Amino acid sequence: MVNILICDDDHDIVNALKIYLTNPEYKILEAYNGKEALDVIKDNDISLVLMDIMMPVMDGIEAMVKIREFSNVPIIMLTAKSEDSDKVLGLNVGADDYITKPFNPAEVIARVGAMLRRYTRLGGGALNSAEIVIGGLELNNDSRQVYAEGKQVCLTPKEFEILRFLMMNKGKTYSPSEIYKSVWHEDPIGGEKTIAVHIRHIREKIEINPAEPRYIKVVFGQGYILEG
């Protein structure tokens, strides 16, 4: 049994998340502002926190700063699409991931499962040097295993190499020719079409919604970039 804390001043959102996370292995605790969340975390063994940003009494950012003074419990932010600056600030002060409102139930379940599995498997977040972790995406260079949102995915050798290259160079844009050269180690004759096909297959395996990718994105006229 793991304890999950949901903190949001909107009772309807808390109730909806409780429904999404109905699981005999989860015990859900509730808080409705940052101060209440701090009290719950200090009094209970919490395995994961879902934290809203905009709340009365104490907002989510201030609460995360205070939580990080005494705990490394994983925190997933609950944010609106318009709160990009808050997402960046939250990640900088200690959040591990974020989920955007309105929620996709499948995404909530997947991200919670991925975060719990990662922190349990890695002993509270101590990353193995062979691990590359970006959001809900995990790649192990030694075992050549890949997990997306907590579920293992099966990649071909070339798909694995392409994904590893992009994950190791997160935030950088590469043309299809550059990716082809890095993976095949030869001149990219017809490489653009080859890379496009491989990227499509990778997206189908790692993205919750391949039509709206969270990780591998196209930079028009330049190439591909992996974002987290």
Task: Please give a structural write-up.
- With 228 residues, the protein is α/β, with parallel strands linked by helices.
- It has 2 domains: 2-121, Response regulator (Rossmann fold, 3-Layer(aba) Sandwich), CATH 3.40.50; 131-226, Arc Repressor Mutant, subunit A.
- 40% of the residues lie in helices and 24% in strands.
- It has 8 helices and 12 strands.
- The chain has helices spanning 11-20, 34-43, 60-67, 84-93, 105-121, 157-168, 176-184, 191-206; strands at 2-7, 26-31, 46-52, 75-80, 97-101, 131-134, 137-140, 145-148, 151-153, 173-174, 216-219, 223-226.
- The strands form 3 sheets. The chain has a 5-stranded parallel β-sheet with strand order 2-1-3-4-5, sandwiched between helices. A 4-stranded antiparallel β-sheet has the order 6-7-8-9, covered by helices on one side.
- α1 links the parallel β1 (2-7) and β2.
- α2 (34-43) runs parallel beside α3 and α7 packs across α8 (191-206).
- It is elongated, with a radius of gyration of 19 Å.
Key traits:
single chain; 228 residues; alpha/beta; Rossmann fold; Arc Repressor Mutant, subunit A; 5-stranded parallel sheet; 4-stranded antiparallel sheet; 40% helix; elongated
**What characterizes the major β-sheet?**
5 strands, parallel
Secondary-structure element order, as H and E?
EHEHEHEHEHEEEEHEHHEE
Strand content: 15-25%
Q: Measure the end-to-end span.
A: 29 Å
CATH topology of the largest domain: Rossmann fold
